[in-house]
Amino acid sequence: MKKLFCLLAALPMMAAAQYKSQVWHPDNGDGTYTNPVINADYSDPDVCVGPSGEDYYMTASSFQCSPGLPILHSKDLVNWEIIGYALKELYSGNKELIQHFSIPQHGNGVWAPSIRFHDGEFYIYWGDPDYGVYMVKTHDGNPAGEWEAPVCVIAGQGYIDTTPLWDEDGRCYLVNGWANSRAKFASVLTVRELSPDGKRAIGQPVIVFDGNGTENRTCEGPKFYKRDGWYWIMCPAGGVPTGFQLAMRSKSPYGPYEHKIVLQQGKTAINGPHQGGWVHTKYGEDWFLHFQDKDAYGRVVHLQPVDWSTGWPIMGKKGEPVVTYQKPKSASNIQVNPVESDEFDTPQLGKQWQWQANYDEKYGVPTAFGTFRIYTHKLDEGWKNLFLVPNMLLQKTPADKFTVTAKLRMTSKADGQFGGLIVMGRDYSALVVRRQGNDFQLVQMTCNGADKGKPQKESLLTTLKPTAQDPIDYKPGIHEDIYLRFTVDNSQVHFAWSQNGKKFTDCGDEFKMREGVWIGAKFGFIAAESDQKADRGWVEADWIRVTP
């Protein structure tokens, strides 16, 4: 109770605190920054300037993860923090789709969104390749607040990478790419007209660019702008890890467009430089945020200066990405990064966390005791691996090298219930505590090819006596208090454990981290069991800390 009282009293102060990462901080403190500005998987980032001209807002693909459409805020395009999500679930107001996304739909859902400020409100458009073009908007102009329920603008399959453009005359146009996996064609961009409110299509699509049979194959991820009387489309082409950025311009939204390569890897180590968004600041500067594909670490966010002196947006340093560069002009000196560590001391879940599917309250809830409780998921009969467990509480990897330590208690009501830490992707490895009779086992669960339905392998590491037992006869539980840890370096993962939080014992086999479906590897908590009739057990997470 004393801990709870102190924490509640500190809530206003905690809410205003600025989190500075110990493992990746791009602001060098001398007026320069080092890419990536976010060393985490914010795939397909897009950015816009708020009405003050001093605030920048970014969103990114969230696929099947819930909540979806992360909203990040910055004062200088270098220091970013997560301020909320535009989607509580996929998709509010549609019972059929809410149920569909209650099971992990890896790689489906929210693809390549765009964020825009128009007529006093923020809008986000995205393509769901299976269901169509969607839009969500604020209702009070506050991107950190509640967003309205999503609207299906165009129903159908194959639509991806959508961006609106409101013209000076109030007309609205939409550009999009196409997913070959659904449409059976790709490498073309189309433009059509929407209603002025952006809620429905009123025109037919027109192909404005065709990259088929050229170096501009796989043109996708278009962003739509207007500058000095020209309609501009900026998009990547040439493939995700090997491609480049195109800029194209026309005097009509329907083309024809002339094009030029404005950013490519060149002699740098920044491969791809892929899809992103352009902003013009109130200080007269131009910048471009884009992603770089780093395999298991996902698609991390880079910031490039943009030079329009030739009439084309040449990015980086003469068209090649910069690593270290002068920060954008700004009135702010705030240094902040997306939160990673969590003490679980507030009644709201930290904004870094996402579930693998639409949230159900039986997955887990905060407690009044300074912990977060994750209940065991009931695995299907004949389960082989954990790939489709919806209640994994996960966050993005924050750096190339880092350590994660968690203090938790496993509470079990029945044999076979387990919980602990997991590094999740197409392959995964977890360090868990599992009940066996009246004892607990420390087990490493690893699966290579989880996305292909391969069975997981288990290694028994040690047997542990419970640290506590319920003294009552009615549905008693046994408990194991433990500290679990893993380190990541060059995608290699090593596990350790401790009973006192001071002396850790290395354990288990080395695991090579692997990306998920269209996303980077993630880490967090797992709790599950195969007994369909037993009362659920749970993991009580006291804290999790990300350190060098």
**Overall mean pLDDT score?**
96
Q: For the report, how would you describe the main beta sheet? A: 8 strands, mixed
Rg for CA atoms:
24 Å
Shape: globular
Q: Helical residue percent?
A: under 10%
Number of helices: 3
Oligomerization: single chain
Beta strand %: 35-45%
Give a structural overview.
The protein has 548 residues and is mainly beta. It is built from 3 helices and 38 strands. The strands form 8 sheets. Strands 23, 26, 27, 29, 30, 31, 32 and 37 form an 8-stranded mixed sheet that branches. Strands 24, 25, 28, 33, 34, 35, 36 and 38 form an 8-stranded antiparallel sheet that branches. The protein has a 4-stranded antiparallel sheet with strand order 2-3-4-5, with no helix packed on it.
Q: Key features?
A:
548 residues; 8-stranded mixed sheet; globular; disordered N terminus
Short structural description:
With 548 residues, the protein is mainly β.
Layout of helices and strands:
Layout: H1 2-16, E1 32-34, E2 46-49, E3 56-59, E4 68-74, E5 80-87, H2 95-100, E6 111-118, E7 121-128, E8 132-137, E9 151-155, E10 159-166, E11 172-178, H3 180-183, E12 188-194, E13 206-210, E14 223-227, E15 230-237, E16 244-250, E17 258-263, E18 274-280, E19 286-293, E20 299-307, E21 314-315, E22 324-326, E23 354-355, E24 364-366, E25 372-375, E26 377-378, E27 393-396, E28 401-412, E29 418-424, E30 428-436, E31 439-447, E32 457-464, E33 468-469, E34 478-489, E35 492-498, E36 505-512, E37 522-529, E38 538-547
Parallel strand pairs: 26-37
Antiparallel strand pairs: 1-22, 2-3, 3-4, 4-5, 6-7, 7-8, 8-9, 10-11, 11-12, 12-13, 14-15, 15-16, 16-17, 18-19, 19-20, 20-21, 23-27, 24-25, 25-38, 27-37, 28-34, 28-38, 29-30, 29-37, 30-31, 31-32, 33-34, 34-35, 35-36
